[in-house]
Amino acid sequence: MAVLSPVAWRTPPRQYGAWETVASNVAEGLTARGWDVTLFATGDSVTRAKLHAVVPRGYEEDRSVDPKVAEYLHISEAFEHAAEFDLIHSHYDFMALTYSRLVRTPVLTTIHGFSSPRIMPVYEKYRDGYFVSISDSDRAPGLRYMGTVYNGIDLDLYPLRMRGGGALVFLGRIHPDKGTHLAIEVAQQSGRPLLIAGIIQDSEYFREQVEPHLNAQIRYVGPVDVAGKNALFAEALALLHLNTIPERFGLVLVEANAAGVPVIAMDLGSCREVIADGETGFLVRDVADAVEAVARVGEIVDRVCRERVERLFSVETMVAGYERAYQAVFDSEDLR
Question: Which residues make beta-bridge pairs with 4?
Answer without folding.
Answer: 40, 90
